[in-house]
Amino acid sequence: MKKCIVACLLAVLSLAIKAQSNAELVKVGDSMPAFTVISDDGTKLPSSSLKGKVILVNFFATWCPPCQKELAEIQKTLWPAYKDNDKFKLLVIGREHTDADLQKYNEKKGFDFPLYPDKNRAIFSAFANSLIPRSYLIGKNGKVIYATSGYTEEEFSELMEKINEALK
């Protein structure tokens, strides 16, 4: 009986590890996938227009509690530090949200950084299959230099250090 329980636990753990590894399509060292943010009004922001910049791509959903914590920290710490740096671009992308969804959400939260829609998961799907919040830091050369999923204060501090290093 004990062997059966142990075997079942190992099987579940193995599946969880495999699911985690399959969740991420883009890893550190990979090139940033090409994508275009398309707003409800048809305005387009192609990733190719960001060449040579340090880019933080953050995926979130309005219903996700860890995302709320991370976005609050972006508002408090990250955005004030980098919003005026023309070598840095922040793309906070609402997975499965429209501009209208994000505008309503932002009125409630009061963020002063831009939120971008990904209503059909087209952008998110180029980076990963699941798990939010999720962030990718892209260096000036277009390669991923740091990637996270979930939110912890320690990881966020490390992200801030990586941005500082990349901007030097």
Automatic annotation (TrEMBL):
SUPFAM superfamilies assigned: Thioredoxin-like
Subcellular localization(s) per the UniProt record: Cell envelope
Coarse class of the protein's main subcellular location: other
GO molecular function: oxidoreductase activity
Record-linked Pfam families: Redoxin (PF08534)
Signal peptide per UniProt: 1-19
Thioredoxin domain boundaries: 26-168
Keywords: Cytochrome c-type biogenesis, Redox-active center, Signal
One cellular-component annotation, GO: cell envelope
Keyword Ribosomal protein: no
GO biological process: one example: cytochrome complex assembly
InterPro entries listed in its UniProt record: Redoxin (IPR013740), Thioredoxin-like_sf (IPR036249), Thioredoxin_CS (IPR017937), Thioredoxin_domain (IPR013766), Thioredoxin_ResA/DsbE_sf (IPR050553)
Name of protein: Peroxiredoxin
